[in-house]
Specification:
It comes from Paractinoplanes pyxinae. With 261 residues, the chain is α+β, with helices and mostly antiparallel strands. It folds into 2 domains: 108 residues, no CATH class; 109 residues, no CATH class. The protein is built from 6 helices and 10 strands.
Length: 261
């Protein structure tokens, strides 16, 4: 992987923005709960360890979301392959979502078993309701493990986005513009138009294809990227405006061009 330096100035839409105070408060509050559970390990090693791990992961998720996308001065997190420029999802948020899903499924399964053990009508009702939630979480986890880690690819044929529950491909003729938005963190907003070659595969919903059923945009949150979201914004903006240069995305020269802009 080539790591190149570049000017990482962000667009004005991302500079000087306020981050979510609720996420910061939630991260600190949940972290204190986790620390409180750690301090009580001598009273019940198993139950308090479970509480500490669970709320510790929740706290980490809140604080990571509060931090949002990271500004970098190099191309860490970007790979240049025959597919094009590959912006991979970061390991930290991917791990946190996966670990939280596993912990939640285990907790729901335990609660369901405990409710059934009461051998009462209310207990059975709670058991079924909680079991349904556990199954839904398990379905999400299976899809997550199949697709993770996510990535965004700017290729010679178009824009590819593999999230945690979907895959989305938009050919260049259907990518009309890109913009910087702020939603508590940097967001790359990709405007699209109808094309019969556009395809979205939603593993938890309905697949869509073609111009009539596709929503006219795609978004990439900077919270997920291992790379500077500004570099993704810059690369998309350049190749939308310079179609004659798109062939270099498969030739191994695109990253050097984008960093020199």
């Amino acid at each position: 992987m080539k790591i190149l330096p570049y000017d990482s100035r962000w667009p004005p839409e991302w500079t000087g923005q306020r981050r979510s105070g609720i996420l910061l408060f939630g991260g600190v509050f949940l972290g204190l709960i986790a620390l409180g559970a750690v301090s009580q390990l001598s009273r019940g090693p198993f139950i308090f360890a479970v509480v500490a791990v669970y709320f510790g992961h929740l706290a980490a998720m809140s604080l990571h979301s509060y931090g949002g996308g990271r500004r970098r001065t190099d191309t860490t997190g970007v790979q240049e392959t025959a597919e094009g420029l590959v912006f991979r999802y970061a390991a930290a948020p991917t791990y946190l979502v996966g670990a939280f899903s596993v912990l939640t499924i285990v907790a729901l399964a335990g609660l369901s078993i405990a409710a059934a053990a009461q051998a009462t009508v209310e207990g059975y009702v709670i058991c079924v309701a909680v079991a349904v939630l556990a199954v839904l979480m398990l379905v999400f986890l299976v899809v997550f493990l199949r697709l993770a880690p996510g990535r965004v690819v700017i290729g010679p044929d178009g824009f590819h986005h593999r999230g945690l529950t979907f895959t989305h491909f938009v050919p260049w003729e259907a990518v009309s513009d890109v913009a910087a938005l702020w939603a508590g963190s940097p967001v790359v907003f990709v405007h699209t138009i109808g094309s019969p070659r556009t395809l979205t595969h939603n593993y938890l919903g309905r697949d869509t294809a073609g111009p009539r059923t596709l929503s006219p945009f795609d978004t990439v949150s900077g919270r997920w990227l291992a790379a500077d979201p500004g570099l993704l914004l810059r690369a998309l903006a350049y190749y939308i405006g310079h179609p004659a240069d798109r062939s270099e995305l498969a030739a191994g020269t695109a990253l050097r061009r984008v960093t020199a802009l």
